[in-house]
Amino acid sequence: MRSLIFAAAFCLALLYFAGAAPAANSRFMVLGVGASSCGVWTADRQGHDVWSKAKAFTDEAWVEGFLTGYNKYESGSNNVSSTTDPDGVFAYIDNWCRQHSLRDIATASEALILKLEYRHR
Q1: Cα–Cα nearest to 111, from 18, 23, 19
Q2: Helix/strand/coil (H, E, C) string of the chain?
Q3: Long-range pairs of 91-94 with CB within 8 A, sequence gap ≥ 24
Q4: Can you give the pTM of this predicted structure?
């Protein structure tokens, strides 16, 4: 019975983390958590159970990875988020997602980058 529960949890985790969808602007394919809706981001961040906290950690790690990719391949500076810290990054995504719950996490991350790039100018 225990192995059945583990197998079911593993399959659910794979389904959650393996999403892929075109970005809202269709310039690139979004892989993983970034394809999830802002509603998912908000629910994960507000949850108090272990599963929600694990999903929130994964959501946050995806955003940090997205920023890192931007730093490597697109940014004029080596750290687009140098004017804030991770808590500031996540607070921005929290607020953006509350206002745009049907959009995806990737689009929220792009909005954050636009905001941060504007600060660098």
Answers
A1: 23
A2: CHHHHHHHHHHHHHHHHCCEEECCCCCCEEEHHHHCEHHHHHHHHHCCCHHHHHHHHHHHHHHHHHHHHHHHHCCCCCCCCCCCCHHHHHHHHHHHHHHCCCCEHHHHHHHHHHHHHHHHC
A3: 93/41, 93/63, 94/41, 94/42, 94/45
A4: 0.77
Q: Distances from the Cα of 116 to the Cαs of 76, 90, 91, in angstroms?
A: 12, 13, 13
| Residue 35, CA distances (Å) to 30, 42, 66 in order | 6, 14, 12
Q: What is d(CA 121, CA 119) in angstroms, rounded to the nearest whole number?
A: 6
Lookup: tokens for 99: 């206002």
Task: List, for residues 15-74, the tens digit of each pLDDT value.
Answer: 444 454 454 555 778 999 999 999 999 999 999 999 999 999 999 999 999 999 999 998
